[in-house]
## 1
Amino acid sequence: MTDKLPPSRFRRQLKEQLPILESQGLITAQQTQTLFDRYKLSDLGSEATHLLLTTIYTIGSILIGIGVISFVAAHWDNIERSTKVILLFAAMFAAHGAGFYLWQIRGSHPKLGHTLILLGTLIFGANIGLIAQIFHISGNPANAFMAWSLGAVVIAYALRSVPNSVLAVIAAIIALFASMERFPHHPVGWFPLAAIILFVPFIYYTKSRWTLFVTLVLLTLAVPFAIAREDGGEFGSAVGSALAGVLLFAWGTISHPKEPLKFIAPQAWAFGIIAASFALYLCSFFDFCKELLPHWKPSPFASFSAFSVTSAVLLLTAIVLWLFSLPKAGKIVMFLLQIATALALVLVAALPWFIQPYTMAFSANLLLILMIILLFCAAFAYEDRRVFWAAVLMAALLILSRTLEYETELLIKAVIFTACGVAIIVAGVMFERFLKSRRAV
Amino acid sequence: MTKTKTTILFLIAVVVQLAIVALVPAKQIYARMTGRLITLKIVPIDPYNILSGHYMMLGYDISRLPQNDKTYERLREIPVYVVLKKDPNQLWVMDSIHKQWPTDVSPDKIVIRGRASYGRIEYGIESYFVPEDKRRQIADNFRRNRDNSYAQVKADRFGNAALIRLLLGDNTYEY
């Protein structure tokens, strides 16, 4: 039995039910006590208070952060430049110092202290912008957000602080978008690598699901951005998406067999599938391929990624899958999904030299259908509702997109839309019945 | 982790944050301290929309690429080095533009560093932040004195430029 406790809602209900069961004579007082201890029901009240306090502290610190920013941004002009700078640093040090004192030195208010350190990092970010303003420096906002991200991640490592790491990743995501807007030659090509170096060790270090989630969002966006930027073509976004797909899916597969890293697998698989199918979805539009494929001049970087990364990843995950255990019947499905993401990368990144836009769009559709079928298989193998509904959603999106793209007659459209609706409902009912029968066994 | 180790790590992290913030204005502070004061002609980039939030966007005469030179037009974010000389009105104007740091520059001229982007050169001195209550007044002044507006800038020996004050007509603004 693992130490992980069930959701607090269940525990609250259990806490209410236990005295009733005891009074009805269904369980003894000793059994009540055992269950009380087993589910740590006496901690319930303080846990709720902790959560409430964390929420209040976080909202409070964000508001104070915004307040400080607005106060200085009002650009009060009666104060000397040097005094302004000293005030800004003082605010940052005060928040960090008070936070560290309450959390680590006195230890009396760890949550409040931690939140104050988050506030310190928020003020640090504001200071970057405000100092630039005091000295009339104009520049790329992306640089400011990158600097913010760097400063936040250093604090995150020093104190194992998940909120600071999440802030760092969010600042990096903003930097990514800011770099796209103004400066085409911003070194956005380094973003994926920098993100892996900065944030992935933190995920391994703290096992934080939150940091993992935002980092996966960052990587899913950064790889397409990087390749589209480096190769100067919008088709590169599809290539990058496919590359992100195969890499993230493989990360999930590699993490799965090792117990402390197991938490990475479901999220990484999900993001891998999303990225790979997004690449295929883009290429499934004939116009997308027709307009952009002729302008796509793959750089050595893209072709390198297509061939070597795919083969290395396939080899590695095949070994991992067969040497270690993947749950039950899902093993083969997961391997096929891995191959499907790899095929997506080969199709999008390596084949444009040899095939026509029409063939590309057709193959992308076929591969997408294969992916959907595999997802359905995975849903049945793992008895997972979320995977099932993701597959249903993808199937519906694919059919609707193709119908709208090829402008068929209204009558045919009506038939297809109705059939889609009916199919979704029937599939849902069937899947629920399947789950029920499985769970009854 | 022991308390001492945590404290040391935390102090290092705070010093890193401090260093990052201190690096932001480092070049400008150096230019302010050691640089040579030069006066440059400015115009509003967009006369109908002088204020952009907290700041005014300044268009410098030296931001415009030479009409007859097409070398820099298509460049994106490429560092360029601009040699400035003094004209008879004591204003500094563009003398020449280079992709490498020019070596044989006579002492009466100055080199400043910029980035060629979208057919313009940016020097990082294009924004002037103004106090909230004076924004409208300064913007109106700028609009009225289009042909009589100047920025005073300090340029150091490494080509860094720091914006010091604006001279709009008869008014001087320094914040």
## 2
Amino acid sequence: MTFDYQPAFTSASRKPRTSKRAHREAFVGWLYVLPALLMYAVFVLVPFLLTIIYSFHRWNGVGPMTWVGLKNYITVFQVPDLMGTIFHAFWLVVWFSFIPVGLGLVVASVINHVATGRFGEIARTVLFLPYVIALVAAGIIWGWLFSLSGLVNQFLSIIGLGSITRAWLGDFNWALSAVGIIGIWVLLGFCTVLLSTAISKVDPSLYEAARIDGSNWIREFFEITIPLLKQEIGVCLTVTVIFALATFDIVYVATAGGPGNATSVPGLQIYILAFAQRNIGLASALAVMLMILVVVIIIPIQRLNKETY
Amino acid sequence: MKQNFLRFLAVIVVFGLLLTACKPAATEVPVVPPTEVAPIVPTEPAPVAPTEVAPVPPTEVAVATTPNCGTDPVVLKATFETGFDIPFKLAEEFTKQFPNVTWDISQDQFANLITSTPLVLASDNAPDLLRLPTMVSFAKDGLLMNLDNYAKVFGWDQWPVPQLNQNRIDADGVRGSGTLYAMGLNYSLTGVFYNKKLAAQIGMTDAPKTIAEFESLLAAAKTAGLQPIMMWGSAKSGMGLAFPLQQLMAAYGPVGPINEWIFGKAGATIDTPTNLIAAQHLEQWIKAGYFPTDINAIEYTDAAARFGKGEGVFTFNGDWQNAGYDKDLPGNVGFFLMPPAEAGGGYAAMSAPLTFGIAAKAKHADCAAFFLNWVASNDTARGIDVAIGGSNPGGPAGATMPAVTAGSVTNETLAAGPVMGADGGAMDFIANATSSIFAQGWTPELQKMVGGQQDAAGLLKSVQAEYERELAQ
């Protein structure tokens, strides 16, 4: 029955004009997809196209809109603070992406090895919680923790490092890294849960075979876990790199870009340009450039990911 | 399939372009030219805070001819600022006195009002009355109602001049004169608050008469191991050092050019020789350790709380914080205006109105204007203004000044108002010069000064460059 049906279906899809049924099916298919497509169009595609259109105009969001060509894009390169924010975003990639993914791999592997069962579930839940906590609340909590009299400095004083205590989020040299630590706290859970789910799908016989051959946990980690988890690692990297480059909320609630412009990132500048300065054109130009930057960085990660399979 | 996808994409693009064409009043908003520019008649140099009893409330003058709320049911649509109780309490009292008026109030944080107000004003459902976070661009876009006629009818243009000036905008978009676009619910005053016990500890018996005297008190506080000044400086609140900086500017130079810079007058600059002296003093204060070492991470609320717990002999702030100080340190907080550079010099302070406007599309503009007039002239309303907000209610010269609890710091700020007013030292805030000069100019540059990455001359140059860049946009 299936054998008979399959060629008929294939031939229908190859010659759509010959089959009204195929047409009807395609139409019904589109109807099913339509609600989602409409939402996607209204909330993603339209704003995306409008952003591109705005980036070629001078507009305050309310008054008349004037065509200025590439002027906004040139301004982005001319204002040093705007370009500086992109370097900050790259530094955050280390904290928001590389460290959570690396640490997530280790934690997931450890949980899988030593903390299976209920304890493992609890550990995963605890690590994942920061990801679901409202970032505004997290920003306030971390503001207290990193303050001069906060828990971080109290701990440093106890272990004899009182001389390095400071208001971490107000220090020019450390504020961006302090924001990065908040990023690790938020993203570690996401990476751990994703990677530990992937590890649990790895055939246990591979680990058993390796153990019979005498390999230890570190060797298993590098020889089995990492190679077999490349796809999930790729997903983690993609999500967290985008998060780092396009970040706004963590920085906004932690430092609002200060001190000076030490923690200012493109997302924050876009917000200030669009909503405080009401310079929608320049904000849109920076947003388009940020998007191009994200795509340029993400494509190699995706390609690398595909090449392994 | 590929063709189908291309067709689909084409539909989306057309859809997007259609939406672009439909966006809210992007290209067709008529710019309403300021029509009648009311002449500013500086009648008498009356202080902003007169204390004598007014014989007749202005609302009783020709009630029949002045705009009012009528007798039919009216729902006033309003947008207020979250965290400030004054307009809510005033609205409540207004309904008590005029039961036909009820309210449809929405509220939001100040930072959100900056972003949402233009859209709210441009919508067909614009509020009658709204808290204005900024003014110039809204007025330029024709989104705010010209209040000149109301000013004539209600006699606002006869009030002491400084009250209305900050809400006037001329044809070039320069504030300070021209068409009236907003009114103040009250008029805040800034200066130096001090912890009376700690001040006595360092030998302060009277308010300092000169900057030199003030600086010697700061040095004494430092020597005594006290925190001389408590201030905030996190970018999340905006850099509080703009307060002492502007006070120093007004002590070493005239107030006029500072206001001209804030109001956006052509050719105005903040980079002047006297402002440089002011910035150098601030830099010395920073280097001398008069401010908390973690100032760049302190938020406004933290600074107020720490001062309330006795950390800091002095703090620069405004009278909106009076209620908080009286609650935290009852009877123990004093206030003085920043002294002049030389003994006998004039006193100056930032004194800004709590600005409320009427939308150009307001459905009950007359009633909203009547409310604004009522706030300044009704004794109960003025009482609410002072009791809740701690600021001067303004209004006509000779209006009744409500009684204040004895020993409250509000007594001292209200008494200081006329002193500053008599010297003509009222200034708007340098952070209000453009919509993001605080976030993009003062805050980062002053934070750099705290971090030793910026000096006095560089501070003024950088802020001036940012100011010119923003005005050129």
